[in-house]
Each structure stands twice: as C-alpha cells, then as structure tokens.
Design brief:
By secondary structure, this protein is an alpha/beta fold. The protein contains 13 helices and 15 strands. The termini are far apart. Bound molecules: 2-phosphoglycolic acid and zinc ion (ZN).
C-alpha cells in the first residue's frame, strides 16, 4: 500500500506578493504531490480562518505559524498513513484541529495538506487528478466566467461592484470559449485605449479603468461584444459579482466608491429594495445571466427579495453567503435563497468538505461554480476539480496573469486529453 513518507510545508508568495503556504507530500514510492493555497481579499465572515503571523515581517501577513503547524503537528500524525485514503486523512486533520472554523491549525495549513495528498495519490496511480477524484465519467469542461473589469476591493477603479465577467455560452468547446473571451477582452482594451481610459489591470486580470458608473462599464462591455462580432446573450452573456457585503453599511447599499457621477440624480445610498430594483433594471437592459453576492451576507431578507424578483430568470450565486459550507447552504435551500453556489476550496478547508458541499448543491439543483481567489498561485487544482465532478462553470479570472491562465491552460490540456469524450455545456446556462 502506498503510504505518506514525508510532508514538508514552506512559505511562498501568491499573485499579490503575499505569503502563502505550499505543501509537499512525498510517498514511500518517492512520488511528490505539491499544492499551494489561495487567499481572498473580500472574504466572507464565516470562512474557515487562515492563520497569519501578525508580526512585523511581511507586515503581519507571514504564514510561518501555519507552516509550523503542517511540519510539526499534521505531518507526524499523517506519516505512514495510506495516501489514497483521502476521507480518512481529511478526518484525521480535522480532528487534530478540533475547531469549527479551523482557527487552531489554520485553513491554509489544512488545505495545503489535503490537496497535496490528493495530488500525490493521483500521481501514484499515474492518472490525471480529475480522473482520480471523479472517476471514469468525468468528461465535462466548465463554461468559464471570464473576468474583464475589476472593481470593488480588487482594483483602484471607482466602481463599487467587484467583478464584471463575460460568459461564452455560445461556444462549442472550451477551446472556443477561451478564443471568444480573448477576442472580447482585447476589443475592450482597444475601446478603452481609444477613449483615453487606463488599461491597467486589477487583481484578477480585468481592466481597472475609471468608469463613470456601473452602466458605463456595461455599455463598454456590450460595445466590445458587438465589435467582436458576437451576439450578446446568445453567444456571450454577462455575469456580475457585486460582492455586496463590501458596500452594505448601516442597512444601506452604499455605491459611494463612485468618484465621478454623471448626473446628480443617481442615488448613492440605496435601501435594499432600491438596490434590488437597480439590479433588476440592469438585467432588463443588459444581457446579464448571473449575479453573485447581489446582497450582503447577513441580509437574508434582501436575499429573499432578490431571489423572488430574479431567481426564476437569472443565476443568483451565493459566495460570502454560503462560504462553501454545508450548514449555510442547507439554510439557503430551506429558505429558498439564491439558486447557485460558488465553490472555493479554502473557504471550507479540505477536499472532503468541498465535495460534501458540491454534492448537497447538486442534490438540490443549485448550480455549482468552482472558483479561484483574488490572491492565487500557479496551482491549477481547481481546473481538475471542476472536471472531476462535471461542474458546468468555473470562475478563474481574466485571460491574462499566469495564476489565472494556469487554470485555463490545464482545462485546455484536459479537453485535449478527453478528445471526443469531452463535452462543453455552453448553452445550458440560458
Ligand atoms: P476574493 O473575491 O477572493 O477576494 O474573496 C473573490 C470573490 O468574491 O468571488
Ligand atoms: Zn464573490
């Protein structure tokens, strides 16, 4: 039986230059599984806790405590254990931690080990990660939600919504989806340049230009879709991540990240009803097919309002709301809140728990969307994860920045590997 011979963690840097955890798991066959851990900027309140050192080095952001926990607490427990028994290993680590939110060992320590174990096991069997996790029926390539404008906490732009994405629903293959996304992204760059707007990019690779307001962003995106020769909605839809928890203050949705306001009629602080009405208005005017975190994570009344208003026509995705956790998703299902869930491995902390959440969503007909974090690494694990469970969507940033393209590139490889057996579900979203 293949066993874990050694585990070694170290501190490396993520795409923002912040320290993060990398873990090596080595088997008694000298096979190496290596995983690194992403990190968010607009985190949900109920996410598993990532440990940060809080001292003067790296401005408090060091992860040497988490590294220490892997090397000195988790490793001794796992050495000699069967590398292919993922469930057993994840449970062992969870018991070692013993807290609900993983604050003792840190979700960054725990996730690094959990995923490195998976990778080592798949290499032992000499099969791709997606097949190791998902089995012989893993064959579906996800529709990418490609980020093209960064606002909110991910850029210095004046726009309060965090992410504006394009969704190539009309593509026939994943390869074609990337081709379409690329074209629209570069047409948008051309348009922005011509207008004298900055084409600098934000944390997830979308442009971080200073637009006048949200409609101005959407108008520019629409123009780039047209200019690329695509039919909005039929071929390319638009997806938003409002990340509304970041601008919900004192029971108001505060749009004041705007620096320039085209006319003073625009109301900056919106009540939950006004905010929902505004989102509804946007969906009527633009080819929006998906809205993530449209409401604040604790504003369940607001979520209800939004779901009643748009839940039948549009994908409503809970990110901060559900934090990839079974109990939160269960509450949402019971109260008929949202209709989809964003899946972020580090919000929950182990592969086993991630799979439990994905399964619960599937059982209740909530769409799963596998997701990166705004601080990410070259690790492309989530690409395999999406194919493993035939998950129809992935959100992993723009078509630039290596930590984003590493996931797309892995999906291109998987599509090639699957050949005729691969399936791109594009139009399902509509
Ligand atoms: P984060 O944001 O990774 O910065 O938390 C991503 C998202 O909200 O989807
Ligand atoms: Zn989000």
């Amino acid at each position: 039986m293949r066993k874990i011979k050694n585990i070694k963690a170290r501190q490396i840097l993520d795409s923002r230059g912040n320290p993060t955890v990398e873990v090596d798991v080595i088997t008694n066959n000298n096979i190496l599984g290596r995983a690194s851990v992403p990190s968010g900027a607009s985190k949900g309140e109920n996410e598993a806790i990532e440990l940060r050192d809080g001292n003067i080095e790296f401005l408090g952001n060091g992860v040497l405590k988490a590294v220490h926990n892997v090397n000195n607490i988790i490793a001794p427990e796992l050495i000699g254990k069967p590398v292919m028994d993922q469930l057993y290993i994840d449970k062992l680590i969870l018991n070692l931690d013993g807290t609900k939110n993983k604050r003792r060992l840190g979700s960054n320590a725990i996730l690094g080990v959990s995923l490195a174990v998976t990778k080592a096991a798949s290499k032992e069997l000499n099969i791709p990660i997606y097949k190791y996790i998902g089995g012989v029926y893993a064959h579906l390539l996800p529709v990418p939600l490609i980020n093209i404008i960064n606002g909110g906490k991910h850029s210095d732009s004046s726009i309060v919504f965090q992410e504006f994405m394009i969704v190539p629903v009309g593509a026939n293959t994943f390869f074609e989806a990337i081709q379409m996304g690329y074209k629209v992204y570069y047409k948008l760059k051309e348009i922005l340049s011509k207008k004298g707007l900055s084409t600098n990019i934000g944390d997830e690779g979308g442009f971080s230009s200073n637009f006048n307001n949200i409609e101005d962003v959407l108008d520019n995106i629409l123009e780039s879709i047209h200019l690329s020769g695509y039919e909005p909605y039929d071929q390319i839809g638009i997806a938003l991540d409002c990340a509304a928890s970041e601008f919900y203050k004192k029971e108001k949705y505060n749009y004041s990240k705007f620096e320039k306001i085209q006319n003073n009629k625009e109301k900056i602080k919106k009540s939950r009803k006004e905010h929902v009405n505004y989102l509804s208005f946007l969906t009527k005017r633009y080819p929006i097919i998906s809205i993530e975190d449209g409401m604040d994570q604790n504003d369940w009344d607001g979520w209800k309002l939004l779901t009643n208003e748009l839940g039948k026509e549009i994908q409503l995705v809970g990110d901060d709301l559900f934090v990839t956790q079974v109990d939160k998703l269960n509450k949402g299902i019971k109260e008929k809140i949202a209709n989809s869930i964003l899946i972020k491995v580090n919000q929950v902390g182990t592969l086993t728990e991630t799979i439990e959440t994905i399964s619960l969503a599937k059982k209740n007909k909530y769409n799963n969307i596998i997701s990166h974090r705004s601080g990410d690494t070259e690790d492309s694990f989530i690409a395999d994860l999406s194919v493993a469970f035939n998950i129809e969507q992935i959100k992993t940033g723009s078509v630039c920045r290596s930590e984003r393209t590493s996931k797309y590139n892995q999906l291109l490889r998987i599509e090639e590997l699957l050949g005729k057996n691969s399936y791109y579900p594009g139009l399902f979203l509509k």
